[in-house]
Amino acid sequence: MDDEETIWINLPKFSERYVGGVEAFIQNAFPKFSVGDEITCPCKNCNNRKWYRADVIYNHLICSGPSTLYANWVYEVSLRSDRDSEDLIDCETNINFGDTLDEMLHRTNGPNDDVKNVFRHVQEGKQPLYPGCAKFSRLSFIVRLYSLKCAHGISESGFGDILGLIREAFPQAHIPLSFNAAKNIIRDLGLDYKKIHACPNNCMLYWGENEKENSCKTCGVSRWNIVEKEGTSNNDPKKLIHKVPKNVMRYFPLKPRLRRMFMCEEFAELMTWHALGRKNDGKLRHPADSDTWRAMDARYPHFSSETRNIRLGVAADGFNPFRTMNTSHTTWPIILVNYNLPPWLCMRQENLILSTLISGPESPSNNIDVFMQPLISELKELWEEGIETYDSFTSQNFRLRAAVIWTISDFPGYAMLSGWSTKGKLACPVCNYETSSMYLKHSRKICYMNHRKFLDPEHKWRFDKKRFNGDVEMGGCPEILTGSDIEELLSGYINHFGGDPHLRKKRKIDSPFKKKSIFFDLPYWSHNLLRHNLDVMHIENNICDNIIGTLLNIAHKSKDHVNARYDLQDLGIRKELHPIESGDGTRVEIAAAIFDLTKEEKDIFCAVLKNAKLPHGCASNISRYVHTKERKVSGYKSHDAHFMLHYLLQFAVKKSLKPEVAVPLIRLGAFLRGISAKVIDLSEISRLQKEIIEILCQFETIFPPAFFDVMVHLLVHLCREVQLGGPVNQRCMFGIERYLNKLKSYNRNRSKPEGSIAEGYLADECLIFCSRFLNGNEGATQLRSCPQKQEFPIGTRRNKDGTAVHLEESELKACHQYILFNSASKEIESLIE
After folding, report:
1. How many CB atoms within 10 Å of residue 357?
2. CB proximity list for 628: less than 8 A, separation 6 or greater
3. CA distances, 6 to each of 66, 69, 78, 246, 804 (Å)
4. Which of 179, 443, 463, 655 could make an SS bond with 706 (beta carbons 3.0 to 4.6 A apart)?
5. What phi and psi, each to the nearest 5 degrees, are found at residue 633?
6. Distances from the Cα of 294 to the Cαs of 35, 406, 553, in angstroms?
7. pLDDT at 67 over 90
């Protein structure tokens, strides 16, 4: 564009021709580019990244002038009102973006139709609830009212009656006429779920090509329960029956939920934290620092070149929605974790995505793949084709793709998701076919020992026959099966899901693989280095049970009993611990082991746990689980076991046990603290790996073989997973289990728990989305105050009346000292400044 054409842009901003040009631009631009009553501002400061009304954009252009990137576009719009949006954007610029013309047009055009539809509904929802209302907008009031319906179990008819009463009392209020109208407003925002019918024997879904089937193709069971309608006088059989599906799965579509992450400018910026905001110093702080993430980047550069593409983790676990142990019912949700976010946000409850809700009352077991078909299908589309998405932070459209990097589950869930059986002689999925296991005839269980094979080839313990199993250990570390190896092993394998439950029990498969996992349908899955995570939370819980139960000799929890001593006798090791039978064979005596505690020592052990004073918020009241009279510890939760292993056990064993036993247990606590750190130095991983191998070898010389269940053995593989996957706290079940507790709170209908959970989640999801999108207006404040969106920061305490707590001088000094002694040097310097 020459100087003659751009004369009004180059003129002083107070001149009449410049003001006229700005007015012409606004007059021509709003009919073509507005969403509601706003368009993106092309001034130098906003750079087409922020949306404003006409009067605001007029002031910006008068004060600051147009951005050099969009000066030609502003001029073209001011002159030609009859051109369409593509022609207006397709103008010459003085800046070379380094892209093709198609890519440049793709970057600079406005939101796509789906995003515009959401923006339009939100814009309409910003209208005040009634003329002059400053506290609620129309949308915020509807969302708040809908959340109360789900929180307090109000029926749909009751909700409709409440809407009618409000309209009758306040005729000027802009609210929907019925429950369905209110639900449609929420559905138009992309907040909805699908009900997919399933075979009651978990054989198939009535989805896709099978959507119109009326009976299962595998077992032949009917899709419907036939219920007769009441109060009908017509004898027509078609009118006297009502079809009710026998099994219903609820699926929450993933694509619209991923799109919504980029509609909020602040959240869209966080979605690139892993690439732009992460500190890259060689330490493990985030999964983006791990080998699995880097290997995917190297193998798929087209995927990794777009920093907004999303990496997901898939978590699955079952829970009882009734909060009572006398009711046997298991609901299985499948939850997605967004790893693009910073480590302090990716496991927060409001950022977890509920993908699938599998109805009970029984666990889907290996048939979980049947229910994951819609999710896997959508993930394949997101990898191969992607979806058109509008980024509010950069005001650009881009092609969004997503990939799953691993799964998170407990050990039985590991078997359901991976297909490898986690029971029997080959229970360890990492050691696979080279798992060292042994059946104990008297204890009637399988133990997993022989950890000397993980030692260095020249280590002296490999040749120590007396302290171990009587043999020299010449074996090496087992080779790990890659995804390609598993695909080759299972080539031609045909999965058999569902069927008659009685026939399923009779089916016997000798291979440790019970199925080929549905995740192998994803094109990249076989190349992922870490496909399934071992859950540290459940490993710690089981190890804590073994240690405390054995040391305190708790009934049914101790691993040292008469049968365990007979196992030692069969193995021919530790002869001093073999049982001694009386002459008549009616009585058996066993000698005290090195880890046995006297009554006084048990009292000391329990007193340490009972009298421990813990900082508020770091753990529950562990003292209530310590029963001093019975000299036992029971009833503690997973996080209590985590805290005891990491911090309290070392003090208890130091005061009550001999050094030969206390030292390995103290070293175990230090190891668990090392792998659970939020920041891990790569050089520490090899040291921790050697440490845990030696600890397990020491345990083999102390505890009986019955102590070594598969959970104890899995400790040897945790360092490898830290290197492949990053910090433990972002790959374990702690955050997922807390989220399951939140899902339980949504259940308001005992006859249909999954339906209540789905509706409650939908209401909470709507609140979170609107509070982010409406940030900065009065409606957002009201949404944040809703009890459905609560935040629970660890270590905080608030008075019930909301008043501040006044600290005495001594308390203030104690807090000040604590901060100084527990902060890094740079943090102290910043505090002093």
Report:
1. 24
2. 603, 606, 607, 610
3. 12, 14, 11, 70, 60
4. 443
5. -125, 125
6. 40, 14, 47
7. no
Identify the bridge partners of residue 627 per DSSP, sorted by sequence position: 632
- Type of residue numbered 541: N
Distance CA 251, CA 192 (A): 9
Q: What percent of the chain has pLDDT over 70?
A: 84
End-to-end CA separation in angstroms for the chain: 53
Angle separating helix axes 536-551 and 659-675, nearest 10 degrees: 170
264: Cβ contacts below 8 Å, ≥ 6 apart: 392, 772, 773, 775
- The residue among 423, 343, 284 whose CA lies nearest residue 721 is 284
Instruction: Please check whether residue 452 is in contact with residue 717, taking contact to mean a CB–CB distance below 8 angstroms.
Output: no
Strand 310-316, strand 402-408: pairing: parallel
Secondary structure (DSSP) of 676-744: T-SSB-HHHHHHHHHHHHHHHHHHHHHS-GGG--HHHHGGGGHHHHHHHH--GGGSSSHHHHHHHHHHH
Amino acid at 752: K
- Domains of the chain, residue spans: 7-102, 111-186+747-793, 417-512, 536-730
pTM confidence score? 0.78
**Nearest in space to 145 (alpha carbons), one of 102, 108, 185, 182:** 182
Instruction: Give the span between the Cα atoms of 206 and 226, in whole angstroms.
Output: 17
At residue 378, the pLDDT reads 96
214-218 long-range contacts (CB < 8 A, ≥24 apart) are 216/498, 218/497, 218/498, 218/499
Dihedral-angle region of residue 309 (phi above 0 means left; psi in -120 to 50 means alpha; beta otherwise)? beta
Task: Compute the average pLDDT of residues 148-169.
Answer: 82
Residue 705 vs residue 96, higher pLDDT: 705
Q: How far apart are CA 42 and CA 65, in angstroms?
A: 9
Contact predicate 250/193, CB 8 Å: yes
Helix (H) or strand (E) holding 608: helix 599-610
Q: Do the bridges between strand 241-245 and strand 224-228 make them parallel or antiparallel, or are there none, so unpaired?
A: antiparallel
CB 406 within 8 A of CB 415: no
Residues 670 and 664: their CA atoms lie apart, in Å, by 10
Residue 813 pLDDT grade (very low, low, confident, very high; cuts 50, 70, 90): confident
Q: Which residues of 173-183 are buried (b: 16+ CB within 10 A; e: fewer)?
A: bbbbeebeebb
In angstroms, what CA-CA distances link 236 with 95, 224, 241? Answer: 74, 19, 9
Are 540 and 645 contacting, i.e. CB atoms less than 8 angstroms apart? yes
Does the pLDDT at position 551 exceed 90? yes
Angle (deg, nearest 10), helices 682-702 and 718-725: 160
User: Radius of gyration (Cα) for the chain, nearest Å?
Assistant: 32
Q: Is the pLDDT of residue 677 over 90?
A: yes
CA atoms within 13 A on the CB side of 249: 32
**Averaged pLDDT, 778-799:** 37
Q: What is the DSSP string of 194-242?
A: EEEEB-TTSS-BS-GGGTT-SB-TTT--BSEEEEEPSS-----HHHHEE
